[in-house]
Design goal:
A hairpin with a 2-residue loop joins strand 4 and strand 5. By secondary structure, this protein is an alpha/beta fold. Strands 1, 8, 9, 10, 11, 12, 13, 14 and 15 form a nine-stranded mixed sheet that branches. The chain is built from 15 helices and 20 strands. The chain folds into three domains: 182 residues, P-loop containing nucleotide triphosphate hydrolases (Rossmann fold, 3-Layer(aba) Sandwich); 112 residues, OB fold (Dihydrolipoamide Acetyltransferase, E2P) (Beta Barrel); 75 residues, Helicase, Ruva Protein, domain 3 (Orthogonal Bundle). The protein binds adenosine-5'-diphosphate and magnesium ion.
Amino acid sequence: MAEIREVRGPGRFERIGAHSHIKGLGLKGLKAELIADGMVGQTEAREAAGIIVNMIKDGKMAGRAVLLAGPPGTGKTAIAIAIAKELGEDVPFVMIAGSEIYSEEKKKTEILMSAMRKSIGVRIHELRKIYEGEVKSLDIKMTRNPYNPYMQIPESARITLRTKNETKTFEVGQSVAMQLINQGISEGDIIMIDAETGRVTRLGRSAEREKTYDIEAERIIPVPSGPILKEKEFVYTVTLNDLDEMTARRSGATLLSLFFGGREEKEIDPEIREQVNEMVKEWVEQGKAEILPGVLFIDEASLLDLEAFSFLTRAMESELAPIIILATNRGITKIRGTDYISPMGMPLDFLDRLLIIRTRPYSREEVMEILKIRARAEGVELTKEALNKLADIAVESSLRFASLLITPAAVNAREEGRKEVHIEDIERVRKLFSDIKEASEFLRKYEEKFIKAA
Ligand SMILES: Nc1ncnc2c1ncn2[C@@H]1O[C@H](COP(=O)(O)OP(=O)(O)O)[C@@H](O)[C@H]1O
Ligand SMILES: [Mg+2]
């Protein structure tokens, strides 16, 4: 039985442009290679992360979480992303910052809860009845649009499908006819129509029709064999949050909510979540679905407050929990909203559950290697001097600032008619753009001036 994969990505890699070079932890067994998978140095942290990946795969992370502790720009986010990559492609990865849980509209726990449920995938296997074959002939019957006499719309269609063993003609209604037109289906296409919903999917061009293989971006596929009407297995991955939203929409969809609900997310009733949990557990028992616990990465975790930490502690114990990875660059600080001073601003009972991984500042050589990889990821060529200059900037200011300057420098080089980025390009953009420290000092100076003037 053929399998069609429709991976509905939860949109998890949107915010990781700066980390697009990270392909994994770069380990051989449990040992880090100096440079591998886009990773450079930071070997102990990467090896520790490798052990975490093994624990996750063995299901040994219940009741625990990971904390990445290190100064800014030492690869905390990069390592969290690498862990997710090691877990597999359709494993969800959700990234939030501690500061994001404070909102006017939503409760903190609601924000955390939906982030958690976005990080848990459900891989669903479904057997569906479909009609599949090559379009042998297609005849669409048009009619006048009842609201617009100048417009023709499809009324129905007569379609003949064939497989290697069978040819059949079907009469289909307006909605299928409309899809056939919208998708530009023509004779010689291989298509599939869902028997229950009438959804049309174009699979490609028939290999028997297409003798010339020069049509690019066109999938040439063999004419299917067997009966036209058949059962096929579909595999797709959604998240618990997707299922929550779908269920909420179905049960709460009144006419008013259609008008005023819009597409904006509303809070989801705990009962709906309970319902979804039960439904998913049932699917798992029936062998129709598997749970894919993903990663919830909480950056700036020292900005969470007691309520958030106790929510997370409970979450770690629960049956349907993602892997929680936190990151911080704060040493000893106040727990937000209290006067208690505590390591990383976290309560002790929470700290007790953490496997802590340190990330250390990089040497100049390591910084240079990372910048080289970043330049390659952005398709930019740097001269040796330019790379050296960038490394100076990274050491003086920050690695992130230095890598941010690569693209502006490339724009400057192109304007000057150079293919490679030269040291002049780096020096020029270094003057034009300021790092965070310079910008905030600049603003502070003017604030003082204005206060004096006022
Ligand atoms: N060990 C490393 N190997 C390759 N790239 C790295 C490494 N550490 C950091 N980077 C890259 O350097 C930049 C800054 O690192 P980042 O992960 O954002 O640091 P942090 O989260 O600790 O502030 C990012 O583009 C990141 O992908
Ligand atoms: Mg980070």
